[in-house]
Write a structure and sequence with these properties.
The chain is mainly β. The protein is built from 2 helices and 11 strands.
Length: 167
């Protein structure tokens, strides 16, 4: 299974186009909000996308629950789940929805962690990274293990990779 995850593109279509052009073999593509684009934009039509705190007037849902290749994926932006403080509210949301992968943005800081069999991934921001980090998006690949790779949205070069063993 391969998932492509981006967030916080803030009106920039060049990075979204570059990612979509490169990642043609994904099982699903997600945008965790703050696209600041119109919901009827053709570029977004094949993406699972949610409402961010900067998506004023857009017709996106607050959350998405998507089943992909035997995985249940919960996606939110994160501003309504206090992700800048902790993952606690996301953990509860994962339990309530039986999600084993949780995708979120909002903080503009990429990262991944596996807790009690649930994978939490923030892809960072494609255009406005924080914390002296690079602009990124994430690719999640899962078979016997999970590999989360954070890549530069324009070049596709690897910024960082995390490996998790599923038990």
């Amino acid at each position: 299974m391969k998932l492509v995850v981006m967030s916080d593109s803030h009106g920039d279509t060049d990075t979204i186009e570059a990612i979509l052009t490169r990642e043609t073999d994904a099982d699903a593509i997600f945008h965790c909000g703050d696209s600041e684009l119109a919901s009827n934009l053709e570029l977004l039509q094949n993406l699972h996308i949610v409402q961010g705190n900067c998506d004023w007037g857009a017709a996106f849902q607050d959350s998405a629950l998507v089943d992909v290749a035997k995985e249940r994926v919960l996606m939110v932006h994160g501003h309504q789940h206090s992700v800048k403080q902790s993952l606690m509210q996301l953990k509860y949301a994962a339990q309530e929805t039986n999600a084993n992968i949780v995708l979120f943005g909002h903080s503009h800081l990429y990262g991944a962690e596996l807790q009690n069999g649930v994978l939490f991934v923030n892809p960072g921001s494609t255009t406005q990274p924080r914390g002296h980090r690079d602009a990124t998006y994430a690719v999640i690949e899962k078979d016997e293990s999970i590999i989360v790779t954070f890549l530069d949205p324009l070049t596709g070069n690897v910024v960082e990779e995390a490996n998790f063993t599923i038990k």
